[in-house]
Design goal:
By secondary structure, this protein is an all-alpha fold. The protein has 4 helices and 2 strands. Helices cover about 70% and strands about 0% of the residues. Strands 1-2 form a two-stranded antiparallel sheet. Strand 1 and strand 2 form a beta hairpin. Helix 2 packs antiparallel against helix 3, helix 2 packs parallel to helix 4 and helix 3 packs antiparallel against helix 4. It is rod-shaped and about 140 Å long.
Length: about 190
């Protein structure tokens, strides 16, 4: 085949001329195809759309993966925070309950007779005929059945039951308020 940039010699043969024509046609066909590709706006738009779709799909996959990782991290952090709040709430409730029971215990201290109500445990002899009477039932020292101590314990248990049904943040607030009120009321009663 001859060089396409160099003109044919005057004494070139028919085969050489035909080969030159075929090479020129091939170059022209390539040039026409390239021009047609540049002028085919519809095909270029389809290619561009396909590229944008592929890029968008990759971005969506990246965002989804990142969001899932963040969600898992947030879930773990929230569970840890809830566990901390529950622990804090439980310790505060136990602390308030212990304080309330301590205050109740101070309100029912034993008197000199050895009972919380001041009722003697031994029979008392009354002057007069030879009758012996007791001024109350004989029982061991301790909280009075159905007395304030048992009422506060029952109230504390009711409060704890209700508090456990609340969200953690509300548990702390709900448990501390009523129990502190009980402690204050018992302190006032003891001072009165």
């Amino acid at each position: 085949m001859s060089d396409p940039t160099r003109p044919l010699d005057a004494d070139a043969g028919a085969d050489e001329i035909e080969a030159d024509i075929a090479a020129t046609r091939a170059r022209l066909a390539e040039s026409v195809d390239a021009l047609a590709g540049k002028l085919d706006v519809k095909a270029q738009a389809k290619d561009k759309v396909a590229d944008v779709k592929a890029t968008a799909s990759e971005k969506v996959a990246e965002v989804r993966t990142t969001a899932q990782e963040k969600l898992v991290g947030a879930k773990v952090a929230a569970q840890e925070k809830i566990a901390d709040l529950r622990s804090t709430a439980s310790s505060k409730v136990a602390e308030v309950k212990a304080t309330a029971q301590e205050k109740i215990g101070h309100g029912e201290t034993a008197t000199s007779t050895g009972t919380p109500t001041g009722i003697p445990t031994t029979p008392v002899t009354v002057a007069g005929p030879t009758t012996t009477t007791t001024s109350g039932p004989s029982r061991a020292a301790g909280p009075v059945p159905g007395g304030p101590a048992e009422k506060v314990v029952a109230l504390s248990q009711q409060v704890l039951t209700r508090v456990r049904a609340l969200p953690v943040a509300a548990q702390v607030a709900a448990a501390a308020g009523p129990l502190l009120a009980v402690v204050v009321l018992l302190e006032r009663r003891r001072k009165a």
